[in-house]
Amino acid sequence: MEKMTEVYILGGFLGSGKTTLLKEIIRQENEAGRKAAILLNELGSVSVDTERLGQDVPFKELLGGCICCTIQDKVEVQLHSLLSEHELDAIYIETTGAAHPVEVLDSIMSPLFAKKLKYRGIITVVDLLRYRDRNELSPQLRQLLIEQVQHADFILLNKQDLVSELEAGQLVYSIQAINPEAISLLTTQAKVSLSSLQKMKMKKKNVHSQLDVHSHLHLQAIVHSFKKSIDQTSFEEWLRGLPDTVYRMKGYLSFTNSEQPYLFQYSYGMPIYMNEFIKMPLNLVIIGEDLNEEEILCQLAELEENSVL
Ligand SMILES: Nc1nc2c(ncn2[C@@H]2O[C@H](COP(=O)(O)OP(=O)(O)OP(=O)(O)O)[C@@H](O)[C@H]2O)c(=O)[nH]1
């Protein structure tokens, strides 16, 4: 019988740690001598995570929309080309943080792959801080967060380092109450062993049933491409002035006061800068709700214009 490729869907809110998890899994897959590939879906029209995941892993991207709504038809094409180009043990599909995992599952359940792909289940990464403060989100996003938990087969309760032990305990309890069947695990930096992921059992899902939340969340992805270095202090001032509805940013930045560019990550109001040694296109992706795109792009252009070397 032809070998079947395992498929895992990775879901979870914006910035919860999906890419971090993927890096960790791919490292372990390589160590185990297995060949794994990635299908990455991003809301923005440019991908920032591609470089973070490394060059040697088979990789396809679905950019500029969400698998579950706007670019469903492209999924089949990308899966087909991954399977025809490589002998794969596993494919990991990283969904956008705005995706509903069951709808993603629905879109990849194609008869074309019935004998080639073995769906292993949905892994949801939960950002414990975000989950703790979920009442600050819009009702639609809060509902999405809950449904991402409800439909998971394996839940990583990530960013354990950011909550107290007592809070972590309470959050585990509350998440397990929503989905008692899934395996749930507290993690920091999404550290989980491949063998525990492989123990997951996929729940029966009625993928065609009407879901409570639909994809029409008002999430936007704004992309700005910098042409030159910018002033770090002005950038940080700009960050402080952003509305709370900016949930996530990522991109590459170059500052006038430093030689090296940075990989910039922002989730839940927290900016992180990491040295980047390769020259990358200076794209910044901003994801949020009800954002004034024109104003944001204008502010960034102005910031760039006023930055002198
Ligand atoms: N403190 C802390 N930070 C973490 C942890 N796991 C991931 N992060 C950071 O959280 C940020 C977002 O992580 P990613 O792995 O990029 O999240 P993601 O879910 O892939 O993000 P999107 O694709 O934009 O939805 C990065 O800056 C990570 O370094 C954790 O356990 N603790």
From TrEMBL:
CDD domains reported for this sequence: CobW-like (cd03112)
Catalytic activity, as annotated: GTP + H2O = GDP + phosphate + H(+)
Classification via InterPro entries: CobW-likC_sf, CobW-like_C, CobW/HypB/UreG_nucleotide-bd, P-loop_NTPase, Zinc-reg_GTPase_activator
A cellular component term, taken from the record's GO annotations: cytoplasm
Keywords assigned: Chaperone, Hydrolase, Nucleotide-binding
Membership in a protein family: Belongs to the SIMIBI class G3E GTPase family. ZNG1 subfamily.
Pfam families named among the record's database cross-references: cobW, CobW_C
Protein's name according to its UniProt entry: Cobalamin biosynthesis protein
Domain CobW C-terminal: residue ranges: 219-304
One example GO MF annotation: nucleotide binding
Native species: Peribacillus loiseleuriae
